[in-house]
Amino acid sequence: SAINFLERLCLTWMFFFMMCVAEKTYKQRFLFAKLFSHITSARKARKYEIPHFRLKKVENIKIWLSLRSYLKRRGPQRSVDVVVSSVFLLALSIAFICCAQVLKGHKTFLSAAYNWEFLMWEAALLLFLLRLASLGSETNKKYSNISILLTEQINLYLKMEKKPNKKEQLSLVNNVLKLSTKLLKELDSPFRLYGLTMNPLIYNITRVVILSAVSGVISDLLGFNIRV
């Protein structure tokens, strides 16, 4: 029993240590995204002591897009995504087991000690996933903030009225901004769940299996069929 307890304790510590590393990486990504969103604002760039430039030239737009791509790829990517996917799969498996136990006999569900352990693990994993989902969602909002490009387009239109002699050059910059806006919309991954990078297989399993299990549990508890 002592050896079993120590093994479970060590495995639990290693697992939560990896989750803490993943959360630290997500916090770093959010910090980069936050500072990146302040580059085109003179007031915020001065406040955070970062470089500032406006998207009024094609060269500046190229730099802005290159910097965005570099910051999104900075830091560990695959290892962190593997950790997050593993946590999600574990939480999914525990939820499925709990749903099966409830369907088997919801009155005796809490009488077993291992079910309490399952519930504690599920609560801890869900809290961690909610934290990561919040950070990932905020990071995506910062990088996919189209309002920055729209604001620069409005500024270009105002400059065209003030400087009609530079209308051709400003029109070229405006067209590049429009293409950049379309590009940012196309780059959003379809397999994302509140900012978490999801494998297509995991994404489909989540939609089909867990929603069916939850639907069965709700139907069993309420006494009538509900399809989720």
UniProtKB/TrEMBL annotation:
<keyword id="KW-0812">Transmembrane</keyword>
<feature type="transmembrane region" description="Helical">
    <location>
        <begin position="6"/>
        <end position="22"/>
    </location>
</feature>
<protein>
    <submittedName>
        <fullName>PHTF1 factor</fullName>
    </submittedName>
</protein>
<keyword id="KW-0472">Membrane</keyword>
<feature type="transmembrane region" description="Helical">
    <location>
        <begin position="115"/>
        <end position="133"/>
    </location>
</feature>
<keyword id="KW-1133">Transmembrane helix</keyword>
<dbReference type="GO" id="GO:0005783">
    <property type="term" value="C:endoplasmic reticulum"/>
</dbReference>
<dbReference type="InterPro" id="IPR039775">
    <property type="entry name" value="PHTF1/2"/>
</dbReference>
<feature type="transmembrane region" description="Helical">
    <location>
        <begin position="82"/>
        <end position="103"/>
    </location>
</feature>
